[in-house]
Amino acid sequence: MSKSFDDLIAKVNSCGMKKVAVGVAQDAHVLEAVSVAKERNIADAILVGDEAKIKEVAASINVDVSRFQIIHEEDPYTAALKAVKLVHDGDADMYMKGVLDTKSFLKSVLDKEVGLRSGNPLSHVAVFEVPTVDHLLFLTDVAFIPYPTLEDKVHIIENTVTVAKACGIDMPKVAPLAAVEIVNPKMPATVEAGELTKMNDEGQITGCIVDGPLSLDLAIDKEAAAHKGAEGRKIVGDADILLFPDIHAGNLVYKCIVHTAEFKNGCILTGTTAPVILTSRSDSCETKVNSIALAAVVAEAMKN
Amino acid sequence: MSKSFDDLIAKVNSCGMKKVAVGVAQDAHVLEAVSVAKERNIADAILVGDEAKIKEVAASINVDVSRFQIIHEEDPYTAALKAVKLVHDGDADMYMKGVLDTKSFLKSVLDKEVGLRSGNPLSHVAVFEVPTVDHLLFLTDVAFIPYPTLEDKVHIIENTVTVAKACGIDMPKVAPLAAVEIVNPKMPATVEAGELTKMNDEGQITGCIVDGPLSLDLAIDKEAAAHKGAEGRKIVGDADILLFPDIHAGNLVYKCIVHTAEFKNGCILTGTTAPVILTSRSDSCETKVNSIALAAVVAEAMKN
User: Fold this and answer.
1) Residues 6 or more apart from B78 whose CB is under 8 A from it?
2) Taking the model in full, what pTM does it have?
3) Looking at chain B, which residue has its C-alpha nearest residue A134?
4) The pLDDT of residue B74
5) Which of B187, B227, B257 sits opposite A146 (nearest CB)?
């Protein structure tokens, strides 16, 4: 079981080298990240984009791109389609966004012919290594689905459980979060959390343990959970997956961790047939490299 | 301007000694906190409750209560009413919860004859000292109002601005938060954030600068805010007051900070005629002492 990003990277190093296909690769931040990923034996890359610009950008940040295969394509959206097709056809293992707007990038992910549709809706997972927690935390959905319905939440759980299992967690514990830990008919988030728990009890959501609603302390702080009394609870401060009621709660917590505490993290899109890396320009290089490592672990698990 | 809890405590030390009236004081955690507050010259206390039990609990944790006035009252709710009346009558400056359920405590706060009603609804503010931010952050409402309406949000801003001003911030910057920083008709939180900003521009909300919707990075991270482009913005990573869209978002962020990063914090209830301290049993002693210091600063400001 991977308890840290170092564990994840060690796991990646022990598998066959994975390949990330970058769509529109002429971007300094992305080239830096794939270069570090290559040096740390995390992943190789195929760079799709404007070859002259890729070389120019690489030279400006002292990155040696002669180590990578480059596929020349000047048109950004065509480059994205060519990159995602590499993953679709099995010539690469994961797909990463370069200097392309997010909307066009997602359009390429969902392309009916060369994209990575799985049938499930896409969702986002942010994985954190938090010093006070002795295992990785999977936060979802903090960036993609604004107001998930109950049905969306079931799919988000399925998508995220796949990622947690790829990280070696055989039976992930899923905490549907809220401000309180009891179902309150006046708080829809708590009602849906209770419904998800019931669906898990009745075998409609499998491969994981769901217990909610839970406040964040009961979900991730063993001492607080024991202190408050946790009788009859399946999760006692030991949740792996934190399911947020909506994007505001999820995104604010995510940014709170990133912008106040700077804990290690990495993110991928899930619900696809291969992992998709959609990092933000403001992510650090370390976060981008962690995201590639996370994608590589998931790609390995999907092969088996 | 107080930029830390040490600053706040220094400010309290320079004022006349304030008095906290504790309702149902026979509680080890509360007695420990008022004892530390007394030793650090933050506040004196009047303990209302079962005198024999107060002395017994104090002895068991080596706290000397002979330094405090004790008012003997065995019945918990009557003790709460006697304590809140001390504040109502000006014989004490702030009111603190002892071993009484929250519902009864709030009933005493809102008692028509001896309580602390101000006309505004009650709200909660959590004040944090975050290492990456060079000033105190005021988070609201993370514990009290589940789904604030636009009108509630106006009152929450008013209540919290009072606290920020008491801490020396003349013109607090208020960030109504959301997952995104543009108004999106499909996201009610962003629409209300835009409305609050307009009400501030038009002079309906005064004594502060409101600018939203804002994502958390644009609200508290100057570098991220500059990076993303902040033209035309009144808040560029320098928000004082963080207004959450609902209790789930607020409470999850609050608990995230407390349970992963352990930054210094203190909380009070506002919207009353005198500050009210409603700490949770699981709060650390330091948090309780910080809450007393925060209440003392607000009590001093309310006198003037």
Assistant:
1) none
2) 0.93
3) B260
4) 97
5) B187
